[in-house]
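Appendix B. Raw example, untouched.
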Amino acid sequence: MSEIPMWAKLEILKRKIAIADKKAEMRKKMQESAEYQKLAGMTDTQRGANAVDLMTKKRLEFERSLRGDNVSEEEVRRKVLAMQNKFERQKG
């Protein structure tokens, strides 16, 4: 039995990596499509509530990284709602 040449092993490895990358890309597209479908089925009120929840979560992480764990979620939610209300007033 002859051993597989190094260049052939490298080509096989490159192809396996390319296949794995393509699978990951397709998986990401499917997840994004599912997220889009979920959002498309929501009412404006549901989308707004979802946005406030997401912004609160991200803002809470940010505030805690700056000020420590003594920041409450309710405090951050009030700030986010105030920002959202200001945006709605300026938009309309």
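End of appendix B.
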